[in-house]
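Encode chain A's predicted structure.
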Amino acid sequence: MTSGKRTKSPVAPAATIVRSTAAVETDANRKQMIEIARVNMAHVEAGMTPSQTEDVMRLPASVYLDRERWELEVAMYRRIPLMLALGGELRGAGSFKSMTVMGVPVLLVRDGDGQARAFINRCSHRGSVVVPSGTTGTARRFACPYHNWVFDTSGDLVGVTDRQYFGDVDTSCLGLTPLPVAERAGLIFVVITPGAPMDIDEHLCGYDTVLDFFGFGDWHLIKRTELPGPNWKIAYDGYLDFYHLPFLHRNSFGPDIYNKALYTAWGPHQRVTTPDPALLELRDIPEEKWDMDLLCGGVWTIFPHISIAGGNGGGQVAQLFPGTTPDSSVTILNYYTAAEPTEEQRLEAEKRADFVAGVVRDEDYATGINLQMALAAGGKPEVLFGRNEGGGQRFHRMLDEHVARLRSQA
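Encoded structure for chain A:
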């Protein structure tokens, strides 16, 4: 029996934008989307039930407080592929994006051959940041503001000011320091430690096949907002948790939101959605005629720090990073449309971006900061993740595995 109730989406809808022309629908991702939809239908028919684990997880509160543990997590961040940009942000040759990631200045560039590159954004002369952090644009050359040394989009040093007076140096050894980089499913991943190993296929566990459907390589950035937050795991827990939605967000998303979550995993990466009675309308339609656009909602997370809330029309992409202390974090909220918007659509999307950022800041992170304070005050040695909070359970198990490996290597 089903409840007959249509679920209210836990994700704020994107502006009305047509699907990205870069979206890739394949037999592989269509098959996976249909399998996931079939599981969703079964939960609807079972009474709108959530995914459930075998038991409640008891997690030591020290996971959110301990400095030694936090330092290992920071070390993991410095060695794991991080999703730093959508391919659509580097749309053509010479397009660039500069940002600071956990104190590391990073320059992302698309070179003349169309390849995404990443560098430490540091001049080889005296160490100045070459491109100011937080800037984007298009350029053939990047000139250091300190002494005007010039680098090209391949990171090569192509200009030394007054070179005849500087002295004898081998410019071929003085280019920007490259970082490991890979582009999959229209997403650009970077390891922020020079020379570190990077196996993007092993990291993604086939998840990129499904993510190809969204056409991220063609999404258009509308607005970017940076928010301070609590311990990065407290912040990230919220993106995997629908349980809290009708309560914490009673004045924003609405008190009647359906908060029973379904989780699908690809290694450490997860998609979170809810039982959707609307999918039952597909039962009498041949699978080859199912509209894939109806199957892609929810929250799509990429371990350890990405949450994509939206669908084929665009939405919010949150990038979470540890802060400078165990009780702090930095989140970059990016709002995109899947196709180039009209002026009216852009204004609509900007309003939506402001609304969503306000919810995250004033409801999620304000609560998280209070939670951080209460944990630090002591009183109870652990926190709980219920059988219906399997996403959080899986995230913490995956993170524990990474921390244990780093600890064994220390």
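DSSP finds nine helices and 19 strands in the chain.
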